[in-house]
Amino acid sequence: MTLYGEKRPPADDRPTVPVTAVKWPADEPEPTGPRGEGSRSRRVRVLLAAGVATAVLVSVASVGAYAYAGDVPRGTTVLGAELGGRSRAGAVRELRAELDRRADALATPLTVRVGEKSAEITPADVGLAVDVDATVAAAAEAKAHAVERLVGSRSVEPVVTVDVARLDAALKKVVGDQGQKMTMPAITWSGTTPKAVHPKPSLALDPERSAEVVREGWLGGQPVTVPLVETHPATTAEEVDRMVAELAKPAVAAPVTLTTDKGSVTIPPKAIAKSLRFTADKAGTLTPQVDVKRLRAALGDDLTKVEVPPKDARMTISGGKPKVIDGSPGQQLDSAALGRDLLTVLPKADGREVTGTLKPAEPDLTAEKLAGLGIKERVSTFTTRFTGGLSSPRSQNIITIAKDVDGTVVLPGETFSLNGHTGERGYAQGYRDAPVILDGKLVPGVGGGTSQFTTTLFNATYYAGLEDVEHKPHSYWFSRYPPVIESTIFWPNLDFKFRNDTPYGVLIDTSYTSSSITVSIWSTEIYDSVKTEYGPRRNITKPKTIYLEPGPTCIPANGIDGFTQDAYRVIRKDGKVIKREKFSWRYAAEPRYICGPEPS
């Protein structure tokens, strides 16, 4: 018998070995006929089937052995490079060689389109590359799929990598003004009237989607279109309107009564409006909450009826040495519970009452913590002088702000703001009218003179080597101040700030006489010295003479030259200059103001 076109084998004259047929349980009964005829037929079929199966298995094994010689199945190509039949190391070498042959093409700028604009991106600038090892690993994984990979050929797509952040930055330049920033949902207040801000979707790049598109299209030889993706905020316009109707408007329709063991406080609608905030997270989910810190500020002194604020430990200078004075605990409302309970009753028309729980409140700065801050010696001091004695309004303003700041402790890493510390400096805070510079001339204004204290404080922190965060010199130079190294202040726009960039605490100590104000900084000495080196004055200008209408608001001035000058703060430590900072300022020439008519 011939199988699969094989040649008939020569006659075999070896003795025949008798074979006993085995009857399987599923075999059909032997057909009737002459004895032994059915048995022989069955044996032939069984032996024939076994032979075919063996031949097929041998054939499959042979083809499989051929197809899977090496780590990568035969017939596997990547970018036209034949990797089949190779070991992984060999396949890596062959693929790298193919990439070297294509180096110029792979370095060719890729044209990308975003919306109506297009640009070319250099692959190396955004990290576009073929990951050779990952590509070979993907080609070798075909061994897990046996039957369908036995014969034929296949092409494996290369694994492409890209730096998502760098690609996104490059694509943003292409986007330009085509995108649209998401408008977050919000509810704002105009007095006690809530205003809805409806959300709008963003139209922007999705970095991961952009990377996917560029990876897939890079090697195609055609421009790649990167989509702008529209993203909607989680809270819809309808939900914002419903929040206004169901919470914001009812919240300010009537006051809320806050009851405690020590008495009751009425929370008026204005205080509710200032403390009820609606904030959206990055996804645009709008959430209402009661800001208890804002509520406290809105209620002001009303909370003193039921609360006892804790007192921080403080430090004074006694006998030329710092002395710690212990603070004391207080009792304050449980802020978390108050915010939660208040939010619950605000939508209601009736039953607008909440019960506040008073809890012990420890001071933020304890005596133990204060004593461990390293405030042990005076590291700098600075004095400026004034005229008029302590009875003049200007002098009283200087003393008022000095007393407010005296004893302030600035912790390591904290930034001190003079406006933030004192708040508004008005009549209610004890300040008086005195000359201030407004629109280039001296006029009466509440708080005049506080700039002299600001200059004194600035110099004290400057010579302590502390970090200057914000200051602005005066428009004109006054001889009572050092040039350049001085600072004005004006509520709320002009501030003075410094940062305690040392590992120690900083104590601000103020003192005064009838003709001077002094600020000293106490801490731990760090530097050998802090000095100022001045450059020469240049661009000197002479003052003009201006005649003003006489009257109570007219303040005469003699006029001051204008000039530009540089000052350098030189800080030394361990005998070396470790920091040299340049401060520059241009002073205008202050006119000579005469209260009277111009001579004819």
TrEMBL record:
<dbReference type="InterPro" id="IPR022029">
    <property type="entry name" value="YoaR-like_PG-bd"/>
</dbReference>
<feature type="compositionally biased region" description="Basic and acidic residues">
    <location>
        <begin position="1"/>
        <end position="15"/>
    </location>
</feature>
<dbReference type="InterPro" id="IPR052913">
    <property type="entry name" value="Glycopeptide_resist_protein"/>
</dbReference>
<protein>
    <submittedName>
        <fullName>Vanomycin resistance protein VanB</fullName>
    </submittedName>
</protein>
<dbReference type="InterPro" id="IPR007391">
    <property type="entry name" value="Vancomycin_resist_VanW"/>
</dbReference>
<keyword id="KW-0812">Transmembrane</keyword>
<feature type="region of interest" description="Disordered">
    <location>
        <begin position="1"/>
        <end position="41"/>
    </location>
</feature>
<feature type="domain" description="YoaR-like putative peptidoglycan binding">
    <location>
        <begin position="236"/>
        <end position="354"/>
    </location>
</feature>
<dbReference type="Pfam" id="PF04294">
    <property type="entry name" value="VanW"/>
</dbReference>
<dbReference type="Pfam" id="PF12229">
    <property type="entry name" value="PG_binding_4"/>
</dbReference>
<keyword id="KW-0472">Membrane</keyword>
<keyword id="KW-1133">Transmembrane helix</keyword>
<feature type="transmembrane region" description="Helical">
    <location>
        <begin position="46"/>
        <end position="69"/>
    </location>
</feature>
